[in-house]
UniProtKB/TrEMBL annotation:
One of its GO terms (molecular function) is DNA binding. InterPro entries: SANT/Myb, Timeless. This is TIM protein. GO terms for biological process: DNA repair; DNA replication checkpoint signaling; replication fork arrest. The gene is Timeless_2. GO terms for cellular component: replication fork protection complex. It comes from the Eukaryota. It comes from Nyctiprogne leucopyga.
Amino acid sequence: NKKAFVELLFWKSPATVREMTEGYGSLREGEGAGRSRVLPWTPQEEQELRELYWKYKEVEGEDVIAAILAHLPAPGRTRRQVVKRLVRL
């Protein structure tokens, strides 16, 4: 790529740099994608999340999300995923 120097003038993420070095379109094909797919929430998980939220929202001095994560039966959920789902619900 003779014009790669122009691309170097702008800030790049590690994923973009990898795409530049390995060939454009490699990330779209799923090769070397940095993020794994997020599992969708089932209706049962959403119901459990609602119940846990209503149970722990009134507790003084305790982090609601931390309490929910400790009692959430679905392993592998991150704090960010729980917060996003609660906002959507």
